[in-house]
Amino acid sequence: MLRDHDENCREIYAEKIVIFNSKYAAASTKKELPTDPKYDELAKADFDIRTDDQVLKDKFEAIKRCILDNREEP
Questions:
Q1: In sequence order, which residues have a C-beta less than 8 Å from that of residue 8 and are 6 or more positions away?
Q2: What is the per-residue pLDDT across 40-53, written as a single tens digit (0 to 9) for each?
Q3: Distance CA 24, CA 70 (A)
Q4: Is residue 63 within 8 Å of 48, Cβ to Cβ?
Q5: Domain-embedded: residue 70
Q6: Would residue 60 count as lying in a domain?
Q7: How many domains does the chain have?
């Protein structure tokens, strides 16, 4: 299993992975987007953290603190 070989994949529960190789490349339909998008609305720190993983929980708590510390109300 993939999760036995890579700790980053420990939550993947797949019995088998199938890869399809083709000599034909699919036509790209992606449009060029600006690399620095601008948004008018401010981020909110009102999301729930639903995990038992303490490391992940700590990371999201740090994100919440960062959002609140950097928030500039008009």
A1: none
A2: 778 888 899 999 99
A3: 47
A4: no
A5: yes
A6: yes
A7: 1
